[in-house]
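Assemble and predict.
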Amino acid sequence: MTALLDLLPQLMKGLQTTLLVTAFAAPLALVMALASGLARLSPIKLLQWLAVIYVELFRGTSLLVQLFYFFYVMPLFGLSLDPVTTGVLVLALNTGAYGSEVVRAGIGSVPKSQREACIALNMSPAMALRRVIFPQAFVTMLPPFGNLLIELLKATSLLSLITIFDLAFAGNTLFQTTGRTLEIYGLVLMIYFATAMVLTLGMRWLEKRMGAGRDLEFRP
Amino acid sequence: MNFDLTYLLQIAPLLLKGAVVTVQATVLGTLLAAVLGLLLAILNRSRLRIVRYATTAVVLFIRNTPLLIQLFFLFYILPQFGIALPTYLTGVIALGIHYAAYMSEVYRAGITAVPRGQWEAAHALNMPRALVWRRIILPQALPPIIPPLGNYAIAMFKDTPVLATIGILEMLGVALAEANRSYRYYEPLTMVGILFLIFSLFSAVAVRLLEKRYAAR
Amino acid sequence: MLPANIPPSPALRLRGVSKAFGSLTILDKLDLDVAPGERISIIGRSGSGKTTLLRVLMTLEKLDAGSIEVFGRYLGQRPEGGRLVPATPEETRAVRGDIGMVFQQFNLFPHRTAIENVIEAPIHVKKMGSKEARDMGMALLCTVGLADKADHYPRQLSGGQQQRVAIARALAMQPRIILFDEVTSALDPERVDEVLSVIQGLAQESTITMLIVTHEMRFARDVATRTIFMEEGLIVEDDAPAVIFGKPNKARTQSFLQSVLGRGL
């Protein structure tokens, strides 16, 4: 047991970076998802195309390849960022592309009759989207967004491969210095799992809070 | 920055060899995941509560931990227990186990979608449970979930570069090895990206065909 | 003040209005004039084009041919060089503001309470102050008998209550024409009367122009100043309710009424 305990400080330091990267990448991914998801529904063809290219590019290639590309190749084009910024950027762009699908599906899930009610109230399409369609769609987007958040957390482990000292990196370092494989990787897995569970609970809480009026039982 | 086509052609055979490894790993990993996933889904309907809880916990744990660490875990720990597998096989097993957890959820949804009355009708015909699964439930549950299973196969394909970290020479592994030798990252990595894109577009079309085919039922 | 020698423009003026879905003709070169303050009940079998007529008036469907004028202004079109060309969305919205609609399936916003449903558009489309909108909204909910349900979400209301909120919501935009599209068809039988009596009350107390598509024949007769019988996208008969329901002139009207009424109202 004490043996396990002296591994913890190092791992906790790594976890800090993991959480930090997740905390920066998640909101950025949300912005990308909303921007590209809505752009694909826009009447402006150019916006549609840009969004499709972005989504296909980042969903069609592998995250790890994207990470190495931004880490090794982009500096050749003059885009030199520190590893953490690179990591946050790539994770956000990748997750945002997947989120784009969630946004599109969420908007599509709102019944057509809601749009018709907006027309009957003489709302402009933009206002209908903002005040009626999107608020309803967003509630249905939350569960898949929650899944993406977990995917994002797990994906941060790849940042250890571009020299970022995150939880995975801490585990690897400890393994190389102590050789205690089973405890270290077992512990690292447990910490990732616990973190994921906390995030899942947080998302559930958010879903409950945002669901006002939707899942209320019928009470005459 | 100039894209050196001659250099690219020079390394192209290597990259294509890597692509073959990638595809192979995906196919084997998918087969393993499909079998293990089904097993997990059936165990999750067991009459023993402990078995149901255990499978739920296993699926939850695998889905909520990174593939990379699972891979390291298997790679470093199996030998400690005297199981010395070829590196390649370890990689395939890691992919298979990771995606089995995802696929089991898909199977579960498919199985739940079979109406309760089907179980009851089979029961009324005095069929043994194994027979009910084989002849009644699975033939109805499987066709509609083939497209989502295909989507997970595509997701696995995009996760194969992780295998490079334990020294498997799939596409990314080859590209990095080449880059390390020549200090040229631009051409190999761009090529890997393009190959992924091509494979992804084709596989997306394939899944859409599957959807068309199985949606009609 | 308009000079006395210019006749007031009709509330609605339809000329050659046509709509087809694929090879199926739903509205067949329809002409119709509606004077301000008229209440027209529209009857006919399902598929006769009644609902589609309301939907093209609300710009929920695009016209294939023909024109619609609302109080003298073209809807969705604009004359240019002697022809009608599609109007901009802003122009369409300016004309559409005169029309309101109540739907068969209510179409309330599920994420808003009853009062929020009513004041949403007045505040955000008409830029009404929120205090003023709220007062008006409460008054309207009072009219439809739901003041005590103002803070309930649609899910917490019965179908009849939801439909009454939807009526209040349409009225809150102060339309000059209101379209009722089979507003009781989705209701349980015992909930039908509460909705019909709200519309009856509205008919008695206001001069708003109404187009009412309904399968409730007694209501169609009692509420309207004029009744239209439609079949296969055409107006077969257009007369006073007393004539249509008492002694229709066309055999097709007669046979329709016989089939839905049996022995009588």
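Residues 32 and 119 of chain A are 29 Å apart (CA to CA).
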